[in-house]
Design a protein that fits this description.
By secondary structure, the chain is mainly α. Helix content is 72%, strand content 3%. The protein is built from eleven helices and four strands, in the order H-H-H-H-E-E-E-H-H-H-H-E-H-H-H. The chain has helices at 2-31, 38-55, 60-83, 91-113, 140-162, 164-174, 176-181, 186-211, 221-234, 239-259, 265-279; strands at residues 118-119, 129-131, 136-138, 214-215. It has a two-stranded antiparallel sheet with strand order 1-4. A hairpin with a 4-residue loop joins strand 2 (129-131) and strand 3 (136-138).
């Protein structure tokens, strides 16, 4: 029963990684760029909710909506100011810029909120479910996290496949030049991608801080990196791949902490990335792209 409880905890954590991984997979799938500042947008969204809840009388769910809106705007600004000028640039230039944006957001948080970690109080209230006479317990937060992640996956999949902006995203991901000739505004489509990914980051931040209630300028850094590993594992550019990768990484991390070593769990997660890159570089659901010369 202990093993089953650990798997459930892994699924809960993996669901959070899956939501974060969506930001990576959408931006890469459409703009062919890796937004390594995505984890810091999670931190910004979490701080916004924390400040609104602790210093004002704003309803927590209204605070979450404000956080989503603020992170959406932040994502658009990051794309416009940092990434748009780098389209067509070398991957190294994009990586350096992403690191610069990440450090800027982290240091801005240090200046504004201070270096002392904050205690994030979860406002998610949902009853737990027990099985086997109390041997297996599914926490209310775990249920909410899994359901929210599942709903986001379904809605996002329908949005991409059924709506006009979503189909524009698919067209841009296939060929930006051809999409532009068809009358699609590539700049707006890519900006929309950053906006959606950043808005989801705010939701992921609340779920993450509700599970691990310590908030600092580094809150989103390591989860962001692990979510990137999840995106690569599942097949970066694939929405279902982000879900599968996130769940697998979450389960691997929790089981590693429980049965191997809490100090080695992160190393094991990154070892998974190395193995995947060696065995199947495109990931579980990734598609092999043939480049014409």
């Amino acid at each position: 029963m202990e093993f089953l409880n650990n798997v459930i905890n892994g699924i809960s954590l993996g669901s959070i990684y899956a939501v974060i991984a969506l930001g990576y997979t959408m931006v890469y799938g459409i703009a062919k760029m890796l937004n390594f500042a995505h984890g810091d947008i999670i931190m910004v969204g979490s701080y916004i909710v924390f400040i609104l809840m602790s210093r004002t009388s704003v309803n927590p769910y209204i605070a979450l909506l404000i956080s989503i809106a603020a992170c959406t705007v932040l994502g658009v600004l990051v794309e416009r100011l940092a990434y748009r000028p780098l389209r067509g640039a070398s991957p190294l230039a994009v990586l350096i810029t992403a690191i610069g944006v990440s450090y800027f957001l982290e240091n801005a948080a240090l200046l504004i909120f201070g270096s002392q970690a904050k205690n994030f109080t979860s406002f998610i209230k949902f009853p737990s479910i027990t099985f086997g006479g109390g041997a297996v317990v599914i926490q209310g937060l775990t249920i909410v996290t899994i359901v929210v992640s599942l709903v986001i996956m379904i809605v996002l999949t329908l949005f991409v496949n059924k709506t006009k902006p979503g189909k524009a995203m698919l067209a841009v991901s296939e060929d930006q030049g051809a999409a532009q000739l068809m009358g699609i505004n590539v700049n707006k489509t890519i900006a929309l991608t950053f906006a959606i990914g950043s808005g989801l980051a705010a939701i992921a931040g609340v779920l993450l801080c509700s599970k691990y209630p310590t908030l600092s300028s580094q809150t989103g850094a390591m989860p962001g990196i692990k979510a990137f590993v999840a995106a690569v594992l599942g097949g970066i550019g694939s929405i279902p791949g982000a879900a599968i990768g996130g769940l697998l990484i979450g389960i691997i991390e929790i089981l590693s902490k429980t049965y191997i070593s809490s100090q080695l769990s992160d190393a094991i997660v990154f070892a998974v990335l190395i193995v995947v890159l060696l065995v199947k570089p495109t990931g579980i659901l990734g598609k092999k792209v043939q480049v014409k010369v």
